[in-house]
Amino acid sequence: MRILLITALFLALVSCGSSPEDNVLRLQGKTMGTFWHVTLLDVEKNLDKNKIQKQIKEQLVKINQQFSTYLVDSEVSQFNAVHDTQPFAVSDAVVDVVNAAQLLSRQTQGAFDITVGPLVDLWGFGSAIKFETPSELSIQQAKVNTGYKFLTTQAQPARLVKKNPLLRIDLSAIAKGYAVDQVAMLIEQQQIKNYLVEIGGELKAKGHNPKAETWKVAIEKPEDNGLNNRSKVAQHILEIDDKAVATSGDYRNYFEENGVRYSHMIDPKTGKPITHNLASVTVLHQSAMVADGLATAIMVMGEEKGLSFANQYNLQIVMLVRKGDSFRSVSTLKPSVSRKQLKPPKTE
């Protein structure tokens, strides 16, 4: 019997209790198939709420038009639809994000790869959900049309180039983080120093929360007790100041067949879902885009390789690892680090 389970994995803001709301502005909306929330503090009385709401919305609409794989006329969708190796014109932003993704691919030795779409589809986790375990032959055939090394970029003018005409890209594992960074930049241009930006669970916070304390974020303990009964227990609470946070996990989307659990997280090297006991990875970084991509990459690596990679690059991460029916935490955060401003980790 096969069971498809799609659960929500997210970072939750820890309640900060009652506080004066005179100088607090809360904005929200929809984007990228999810929701966005922005909290601004100590805002000037003359700040135009409608104007900044419009600016954020326009920024997110623009980003969606660049990176969406669901909009047929987005830049990424149009690039994917062209089956040749001629340079394809895109915006500078698309080249910038693809370059960031390619750097992560090289650093992680292929654990992060924006070209694995054919494998994701093959295992039934793409836009067309299917319920069949693929054969080894079909996996190898799909792998022929994947591989980040088959993708290059050009600048001035901005271009993407396929070495394999059937190559296609999906930036969903990094685009939300990029959007968080862009909205945060827009907010800082308004000279606002205390804020939180969150899009679909990826977030960036700076300054203090409405209670005049450092922003607190809870990493929820993953519980596979069904969509409606999943207990919400905080496994970790992080204090965040001028830092982005992103989480990736294998219990957002998976299926079970004949007692075997198949994660939506595909290992680009094997072409198959990950099978290790790492349940989730949370990454802290100056850039939400980088944190977003690193969380996915380390999730693919698993506990041992992921921890070694994090230590090699001085990354700040928290892992939740399955141990029977419970979870144990593995972290590179020092006790004092989570209570103070974090030093930017090295990414090179």
Keywords:
globular, 2 domains, single chain, T-fold, 8 helices, 348 residues, disordered C terminus, eight-stranded antiparallel sheet, disordered N terminus, 19 strands, 29% strand, alpha+beta, 28% helix, three-stranded antiparallel sheet
Question: How is the topology of this model organized?
Answer:
Layout: E1 2-6, E2 11-13, E3 24-31, E4 34-41, H1 49-67, H2 75-81, E5 88-89, H3 92-107, H4 117-122, H5 136-143, E6 151-154, E7 159-162, H6 172-188, E8 194-199, E9 202-206, E10 215-220, E11 234-240, E12 243-249, E13 253-257, E14 260-263, E15 266-267, E16 272-273, E17 278-285, H7 288-301, H8 303-312, E18 316-323, E19 326-331
Helix pairs in contact: 1-6, 3-7, 6-7, 7-8
Shape: globular
Number of helices: 8
What distance lies between the first and last C-alpha atoms, to the nearest angstrom?
45 Å
Q: Please indicate the count of domains.
A: 2
Corresponding CATH architecture of the largest domain: Roll
Mean pLDDT: 85
Specify the biggest β-sheet: 8 strands, antiparallel
Spatially, the strands of the biggest sheet line up as 3-4-8-9-12-17-18-19
Radius of gyration: 20 Å
Q: Report the portion of residues in β strands.
A: 25-35%
Within CATH, the superfamily of the largest domain carries the name ApbE-like domains
Structure description:
This protein is α+β, with helices and mostly antiparallel strands. 28% of the residues lie in helices and 29% in strands. The strands form 5 sheets. An 8-stranded antiparallel β-sheet has the order 3-4-8-9-12-17-18-19. It has a 3-stranded antiparallel β-sheet with strand order 1-13-14, with no helix packed on it. The longest helix is centred in the N-terminal third of the chain and has 19 residues, at 49-67. The chain starts with a strand and ends in a 17-residue tail after the last strand. Residues 1-10, 15-19, 225-230 and 336-348 have low confidence and may be disordered.
